[in-house]
Structure formats: structure tokens, C-alpha cells
Amino acid sequence: MRLLLVLLALPVVAQASPWVLPTGELVVVGRYDYETASSEYLDRGSAVAYSLNGRLTATTYAIDMRLGVLKDFELELMLPLKQVTYTADPVILLDNGDVVPAIDFFQDNVLDFSNSSSGLGDVELSGRYQLFRSAMAGAVELSLKTPTGYDPPSGTFGNKPSSKEAFLADVGRYVRPENITDDVTLGDGRLEVSVGLLLGWAARTGTFVRYDSSYRLRFGGASHQFSSRFRVGQQILGRLLLFGGVDGELAVTDGDVIGVSVAAEDPDLPASEYAGLKNLTLREVRLERDRVALAAGGILRLTDTVEINAAYGHVIWGRNTAASRVISLGLGIRTDLGK
Predict the structure, then answer these.
(1) Which has more confidence, 153 or 298?
(2) What 8-state DSSP symbol labels residue 162?
(3) HSE of 186 in the Cβ direction (CA atoms, 13 Å)?
(4) What is the pLDDT of residues 256-270, one digit of tens each?
(5) Dihedral through CA 297, CA 302, CA 306, CA 308, nearest 10?
(6) How far is CA 248 from the centre of its chain?
(7) Residue 174: CA atoms inside 13 Å, Cβ hemisphere, count?
(8) Which residue, 170, 187, 281, 312, has most beta carbons within 10 Å?
């Protein structure tokens, strides 16, 4: 029922760093994310509630591994297992017109957008090279993100037709229960290559500032993006680090149309108000997304090699994205393979 649910877990616990790991050092982080949303950003502006009492919930279990491979060079691999669930009230959109017996019409045309999906999400492999390192550090990054065979996003009833006019010309063909496809997806389903610059500054007082930026080349008809991340933090009592910041991504090219979706004019109306395609607006869905999210959290060092981290993220503005709130918990272990 929504324009598009592009589910990408918020990077609130980021392991990428402008301070590249020494040769032979390995850092492994296990992370759990819980995400929920009851509204979305269809266009740039205010969020709107999911229609039909819709709600998104998702969990991610991720393993993130960084290894210092050579002097001033490290590799990172991130593997996420996801489960995504969307629930909403069932609805009938077509008008019976007193042609088909009511019970038969109901059985053939009731639409249930509730769905669930689980599996391996996008796998990410990154390499970073240290440009300079002192109180201020800088590194360049090349990253590859690849989908793993899950169903990609599309319009509410599939990737065809690609225009509102074609949809309206044959509504009865497309508005069918078996055609519902877009309610749950584990990602964009597109290959992505990004080039980035990571900068950081740390003071002896324990204060640090970080800024990362990258340009993402997204293939398969997806819009290219510019992304950035800002963090500021303070170390307390030598073992606790508190931080806050903002993440952003902006589409800089047009994405291809991947189908037609229907959005509610008034998402607060009950399912009975949708019959005959009432309370609906048709939208041509493009594979492009904007997003701004706030993040805050802390890292507690238990020993010299073990730390736990917790973070919270909230999408506060965007387009074609859920107004998500995410809680992340992680456990990190560092070891020197050369010893």
C-alpha cells in the first residue's frame, strides 16, 4: 500500500574509521539492530502514517570484521542477517458493482499487505588506505555492496506497468492479491560501488570529531547518491565514550521507474473507505531515496580488547524511506594475529 519500503538498517554503530588498523590487528563486532516505523516519507517533507494501521518491524544480526592487511591498509567485511515484517489491515479496493455475489467477490479481491521476509541482506566489502595520521587522521575508502538474491523492491502490484495511465487502463488486471510485491524487501537489490574520504580529529582531552563523505555509484537503474556522516564525542573516565551526530544521503541522479504504487490520501481512514479505489493516489515509483537521520550512543571499554556499544538512530527527513527508529547493541573484540 505504500509508495516503497526501502529497508536499510541505519549505520548507527559504524566501525569504519579514518584511523586504519595496524598490520595483523583484527576487530570483530557482533551487532543486533531493532527497527520500527509506523510512518514514512513519500516526498521530501513531513512523514505520513502508514495506511490501514500499517507498521514495520525489523531485526538485523550483523557480523562486522576489520583486518589490518598491510601497512596503512585494511579490509572490512560486513554480513547481515535480516528479518523484516510489515503488518496492515486487509482491504478491498475494487468495486463489486453488484455483478459478482458478495461472498465470491470478497474471497477473490481482499488484499492483505501483511508479509514477512528473512535472509542475508546486502554484503559489504571495503578497503581503506591511510593518507595521514596524527591528532588528525585521514583515509580513502573503496566499498562494494552486493545483493544476495532476495526479491528487489517494486510498485505495490509489481514492476509493470510503469505508468499511471497504463495502470488505470487495466485496473482489474493489476489490483489482485497475487500481484502484491512491495511490502517487504531486504534492500535495493542493486550493486553499489562507493568512493569515500574519512577524516577525524582527536584531542588529548578525549574529545573527537569525525566527518565521512562518499559518492555511491548504484547500478541496475538506481539513482546515484552522495552520502555523509558527522560524529562528535567525548571520552569519560578513560573507558566510556559518548557520541552524537547526523547521517545523510541524497539522490543526485534520477532512478528508473520500478512500478506504480497506490498511496492513501488520508491514511487515518479505515479499510471500508477504500472500496472503488477511493482515498487513493497513484504514484510512479522510482528507485531513488533521500534520508537524514540523527544518531547517539556510547561505547564502553570493558578490557583492553573487549568493548560493548549501544546506539539509537531516528530518520527525521527523507523521501521514499521509512521514518525508522533503530536501537543497536554490539560487542566488539580486538586481537593481534601477529602475536
Answers:
(1) 298
(2) -
(3) 22
(4) 998 888 888 888 888
(5) -20
(6) 12
(7) 24
(8) 187
DSSP conformation class of 189: -
Residue 133, in any domain of the structure = yes
| Residue found under cell 477511493 | 278
The count of other CB atoms within 10 Å of the CB of residue 25 is 17
Cell of 135: 591528532
Angle CA(266)–CA(183)–CA(11) in degrees, nearest 5?
100
Q: CATH number, domain at 180?
A: 2.40.160.40
Q: Is the peptide bond before 161 cis (omega within 30 degrees of 0)?
A: yes
Is residue 3 a part of any domain in this protein? no
Taking each continuous run of H as one helix and of E as one strand, the counts in the chain are 3, 20
Q: Provide φ and ψ at 104, rounded to 5°.
A: -70, -40
Report pLDDT for 15: 60
Q: Give the separation between CA 47 and CA 70, rounded to whole angstroms.
A: 46
Mean pLDDT for the stretch of residues 193-216:
95
Q: What is the mean predicted confidence (pLDDT) over 121-140?
A: 95
Which set of grid coordinates corresponds to residue 190?
A: 542493486
- Read off the C-alpha cell for 243: 557520541
| Eight-state DSSP code of residue 155 | B
| Model pLDDT, residue 296 | 97
Range of the domain at 174: 25-336
18 in a domain, yes or no?
A: no
Q: Is 294 exposed, middle or buried (0-12, 13-18, 19+ CB in 10 A)?
A: middle
**Cell numbers that stand for 122 in this block:** 546486502
Q: How many CB atoms lie within 10 A of CB 166?
A: 12
The Cα 131–Cα 151 span in angstroms is 39
Predicted confidence at residue 10, as pLDDT, reads 37
pLDDT per residue over 217-227, tens digit each?
Answer: 999 999 999 99
pLDDT tens digits along 76-101: 999 999 999 999 888 877 766 555 54
How many domains does the chain fold into? 1
CB 303 within 8 A of CB 12: no
Q: Is residue 141 part of a domain?
A: yes
